């Protein structure tokens, strides 16, 4: 489909592609770039014919900003929104002032046309519609910006932990443990399910399965991380996790990514400090490195996003126990949909009241009733609470959950039993408490919730490239 | 189990943990550290009682080197290999010269004992045995070093691509596509497999499954990456991938991590250049940042490792077509186990001959017969070959495989049909060629093979924390 308009100096495109400059590097260059003849490649956002010349707005995804190209009308004959082109031309100062430089095209080559049924014509599309074309939506302003910010947040995460001496652990995805303590799991199998092998009792004979037993997709890398923290001191995981919950909300995905640091020789206040430092470092990083994308979100997705982020960045995170929080909620005079009393889990409305109205900023709640928390959390001396923490931020509510882990062998064993979990599955986990046990703990952060927090994106399905939700596993 | 030996200055451990210094930071400090009183925490590697004083070798996993502590005999009463301790003491110059500094203990606290059945007593253990205690093996020299190098390689990967303007794409793990073009897949389900719903034909009724259709674990993020490269230009994935192959070799895992960069506006030579730059950058990075760990591997795992790595680092990667390689193999006079002729896939023995004997260094083979390569690779004009590449390195053989992708819509459609793949599953993939198609391509690197290449580790099961192989999904 590629045709040549004008003439490329080099005989083949292949010989010139390598010299291509990205839009971002041109727009960020100093003025010595003026007068240079360069090659840019990208996709046409808009093309306007002004009779004696034409304007092309080009994107190559490297930056939020498009790049303006001034072309001869003959060059744009078959160009339309979505078409891919390579353009050689001279960089000139942009008279408009909207951007620093633009290009006077000398030669333009159409690499790939874009027929008139291209779904992303220049108009606003609903996010619901865009999800049905998730393979094309990164070409939109919003999803391009989400992808760039998400990539930067991932990189900032690695930088943050690596610079503090944490080691990255890729914890296992397929697990033989069907009770990691958080929600419904997906089963993984290679058996022929149309005609599966059966035991004498008529149930599935999983001894014939790939791993010779039932296996599942992990819900958390934490238990793996504890094993590595018990050797390397400080580690973090960053990998996909899964929940087979039939939730059709804007806050749930069946497949999502989690970051789970785990620290040896650490108590709950140290874990809380790390969580605060980490969130602040992420905000600082994206404010510096994704300024254009965030300005777009601030204007079109969530008014006030930038002030919300800088507020969190500059606020000390208040520390408060769950018990104190309950007293505040009880005294608030507010009538909540879910009445609150000591022992109940906090709902989103409670978390947001505490964060948005009472503290007017981020806070870290600690020491929750043990009945509502996982078996591995460390018992406090009061006999009623465990050394858990949740980080609550305005607008989003809970963004991080963590705890100090029960490092006392016999206590942990009791807790496994009292939670009706099978002891034999946890022998290796108990070993970590038998040999050289240390105070340790960590937290988990759902990466897509973080993307929502940073971008203001309302629906979590728009915070990941190809969302997996009940009834939908396309692309 | 924790007892106190001597007296800690602070009343509680919790109050002091935060001031803990890691061994690596002490050993790398300048001499102003001498005379300071510091707290170190870690695990006892060895303890030796010399009557008037005692030596403790401590590790906290932050570095390969242990830290030597001189203690009073009374302090070590219940210490044994594997025990966890916190020690406060004065940093002094080490007289031995084996390391720069050591500590004169003032107070020592036993955090967690290590009973005499601790499996990692001071003796060599076989890697086979250590795999059965994968939760404890990161405490060994070898696995601690593997974990640190692996973490660094992951970080170096992110740095390399991010600094070149690539965006990180987390491609999807669960896929509805059962034919991504590479090997057997694991099925993912939430159906009750003991009593599954059936269709009228008696087969599994996957319309009742979580995603309302059959779903699988991904074998590659490439197709997702192509969608994002068609919007953001340059992207890379780094995530887990799966093969349900019943392979019991030292080179295969059922679950492994892959790095897959995908470049828009790129042809095969550009992809080859990127692969060469990337491998060299990784070697440079670990030689600088994991010197102690690599020295250990060089001494105990693979003699000559360091010279092999520096050789690859300093060699230009030879480019050669598959057809040229076949001619060389035919002329070699060598009798191979698998006879070679044009059209056949290269075996490890051929790859190693080309790399180790003919080129005496790394090489990149290109333009393979289309019959032995995947459907998405770009047809060359000769009608016989495709724009594929493999990177071969001494000792390991193939470490990277890649290609330029078929960007011509009608050609790709023909190839999908001729490979007997279901067209309807690939409509979205064809869309990438319908709207603004561009020359593009990329490569895939198996991360555990990279770890083997960098560390000299023989068995791939020792290059990942918790290996998943047929019949084994422990921890």
Automatic annotation (TrEMBL), chains A, B:
Its main location: cytoplasm. Residues 148-467 form the Aminoacyl-transfer RNA synthetases class-II family profile domain. CDD domains: AsxRS_core, EcAsnRS_like_N. GO terms for molecular function: asparagine-tRNA ligase activity. PROSITE patterns: AA_TRNA_LIGASE_II. The keyword Membrane does not apply. Pfam families: tRNA-synt_2 (PF00152), tRNA_anti-codon (PF01336). It catalyses: tRNA(Asn) + L-asparagine + ATP = L-asparaginyl-tRNA(Asn) + AMP + diphosphate + H(+). InterPro entries: Aa-tRNA-synt_II (IPR004364), aa-tRNA-synth_II (IPR006195), aa-tRNA-synth_II/BPL/LPL (IPR045864), Asn-tRNA-ligase (IPR004522), Asp/Asn-tRNA-synth_IIb (IPR002312), NA-bd_OB-fold (IPR012340), NA-bd_OB_tRNA (IPR004365). Its EC number is 6.1.1.22. It is found in: Cytoplasm. Keywords: Aminoacyl-tRNA synthetase, ATP-binding, Cytoplasm, Ligase, Nucleotide-binding, Protein biosynthesis. PANTHER family: ASPARAGINE--TRNA LIGASE, MITOCHONDRIAL-RELATED, ASPARTYL/LYSYL-TRNA SYNTHETASE. HAMAP family: Asn_tRNA_synth. Homodimer. Belongs to the class-II aminoacyl-tRNA synthetase family. This is Asparagine--tRNA ligase. It comes from Candidatus Neptunichlamydia vexilliferae. The gene is asnS.
